[in-house]
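Contributing new records

If you add data, match the layout below exactly. Sequence lines come first and carry their own label; structure lines follow with theirs. Keep one chain per record. Anything else will be rejected by the validation script.
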Amino acid sequence: MSVEALINQIEVYNPDADFDLLRRSYEYSEEHHSGQQRRSGHPYFTHCLETAKSLIDLKLDVPTICAGLLHDVLEDTLVTRDDLAQLFGESIAQLVEGVTKIGTYHFKGRTQQTQADNYLNLFLATAKDIRVILIKLADRLHNMETLSFLPIGRQQEIAKETLEIYASLAHRLGINRFKSRLEDLAFKYLHPLEYREIASLLAEKLDEREAYTRKMEGVIVQELEAGGIRAKVHGRPKHIYSIYHKIHHKGVPFEEICDLIALRILVETTADCYAVLGALHGKWKHIPERFKDFVGLPKRNGYRSLHTTILDRDRPERGRPIEIQIRAFQMHEVAEYGIAAHWSYKEGLPSTSESQSIFAWLRQMLDDIQELKNPYQFIQSMKWELLPDEVYVFSPKGDLYSLPAGSTPIDFAYKIHTDIGETCCGAEVNGVILPLRHRLQNGDRVRIMTNSKAHPSRDWLRWVKTTRARNKIRHWFREQDRAQAIELGRRFLEMELRRQHLDLRTYLKSPELLAFAKKLKLNTIDDLLMQIGNGKESAEHVVNVLHPEPDTREGREAPVDAVRPAPAIQLEGIDIALVRIMKCCYPIPGDEIIGYITRGRGVSIHRAGCPRIINETERVVNVEWKPEILTTYPAEIAVQCDDRPGMLGEIATLIAQFKVNIVKGNLAHSSMPVEGMAHDRLTLAVNGIEQLEAVMESIRCLKGVQTVSRIAARN
C-alpha cells in the first residue's frame, strides 16, 4: 500500500493531520528496512506498513501511526533515538523507544526474570503513554497473522503469550476488534484440531444462517419502527474462540451455539436501548438467565451494552435462540475502539470518565504487581489481573465493587481496606453466612465480619484471586514470622551440628557464633538464626566456620527418594538451602508445593496432596518456587495413542522441538484394554508447569493420540 493510500484513509476521520510527517516517516522506514526480509520472504517493511494500517483502523493520530511505521528501526537498523528525535520530534522518538524496550528479548532461551522485566517495561511504558501498548498490539496482530512461518514450538509459545497477555490487555483496554482477532489467531495454533472442527461446522450451515439473519434483521427493524424507534440492525460475526470458550467453560452444547443467530442493534440514546429491550421482550420470549445489563453496570474497560437472547417461533418445540446486543452509537464506538476512542493524545491523558477508569485500573495493577520481586509470582499475578471475566458485588451500603471472576470475600475485604482484610473472621453473602473461600457471583451483597483478634490464615493464599490481597497477606506473614524463622534456623543448625556429631548447646551461646553474626553485620545470635531460617545463610556454612573439617560427604549417594538439591525454593518468599525435591510426586515450578521437615535431612519438597506426607502440622512449612529457567525438573506423563510404527518417534520429535529431554520412556502394548492402542510412560526434564503443559498440549494435537495426562503422586 502506498503512502497516499494511507493518507486517503486518515483523511476520512482526520482531514487536518500532518501528512508531510507521515510521508517522511513512511519513506524513512522503507529506506532503512530496505533489503531486510521476514521469514515469509516478504520485505520487512510490509510488517511496519501492516502495523500502521491497524492503527489507522483505530482512527489514531498521525504521530502514533508514524511511530507504527518506525517501531522497529531502533532494534533492526543503525538508527538511534537521537536520530528519530531530531527528524520526527520527541513524541515519536519516545513512542518508538517505548515499543522497542518491550521487544528486545527473544523467546528462545529467555528466563522468567527477563520475561517479567519485559512485561514490567510494557506496563511502565503504557502507564506513561497509552499509545505504546496500542502500537504493540498492532505489531503483535500482524505477527500472529504471519505466525505460520515459524517453527511449531515458537508458534505455540507466542500464541500462548498472545492469548494470556495481549488479547487480555486488548480486552482490558476495551479494544474488541483487536481482542477477538488475537484470540482466534492464538486459538488456531494452540488448539488446531478444535479450531478446524469448529470452523468446519460453522461453514456447513453458513448460507442458511446468513439468509435467516437477513430475514430477522428486517423483522426486528419493522417491529421497532412500529413502536417509533429508529435503529440499525445487522448481524455480527461469531468468533471461533468465543464459541470454544462457551463450549468448554460454560457448558453450552455446540449444536446450540452453531445454530445461534447473533445480531447487534444500534440506537441514538441510552433511553432508546431500554425501549428496544422492552419491544423485543414484548414480541418474543427471552431467556432470563442470559440477560445482562452492562449499560447500568458498565464493565471496567468502559464497555456498555444490553445483552439478551430471544427465542424465535420458527421452532415451536423450543424456539430458535437469537443473541442480541443493544447499544447506542457512542457505546458501539467505545466497544470497538476502547480507550482509543476517548484518549486525549495531545496531553497524553485520559479525556473521559471511561478512559480515566481504565487508566486508574492500569496504574493500580502496576502498583500491586511491581511490589513482587519473584518473577514467577509477578507473571502469575499479572495474568490474574488480566483475566477477562469479572464479577460485580455490592457492599451493605450499596457501593459497587468490581473483582476478578472467582474472587472470594477475602479479596473483597482487602479491596475495601487492608485493616478489614487482616481482621476478617467471616462473611455474610446475601444475608447468609458463608465460608471465606466462597466464590462471589454477580450481584452479591457482601458484609465482612471482623474481629480485632483475628488474623490472616495461610490457607487464604490458596483461595484469593487478587494480587492486592495476596501481597497484603504475604506481607502480614513476613512481619509476623520472625519467631518462626528463628526456630526453623535453630532446627537447621541443630541438624547440621548433629550430622557432624556436635552439640547445639555448646555453640548456641558461644562467642564464636556471635562473632560470626557480627561479621555478617548482625546484632544478635537470634538475627543469625533468622538468616539461617530464611535461607539467607547456610547452616552448613556456619558449622564449617565454627568447626572446620574436610567434607566427607563426597561420593555419598543421595537418598533414594530425592531428585537433587533445590536452590529454586523459597520459604515465605526467601531462599533456603537444605531442601530436596522428592521423587514420589515430582513437583515442578508452577505446582502448589509444601515443605516437610525430615529429621536430619532438612526440608523435603512435595506436591500438595502427596500421600507420603504425614499429618504432623508442626513439621510442615510453607514454601514456594523461585524458578530458574536453566534448571530442569523431572515430570512423568502418560500418553495413550495408536499402536503403529513411527508413533513414538513423532512424539519424541515433537518434544524435542521444545528443547525438552526425555529422561526415561516405557512403551506398553499388551496391557492396554483396547486392542491396537499403546500406553507410553515418559519422564521429561522440564523447567516448569508452563513448559510441561505446552508439551502435553502439542502431543494431544498429534494424529493418533487419544489422551495425555500427568502421572499423579505415588504412595
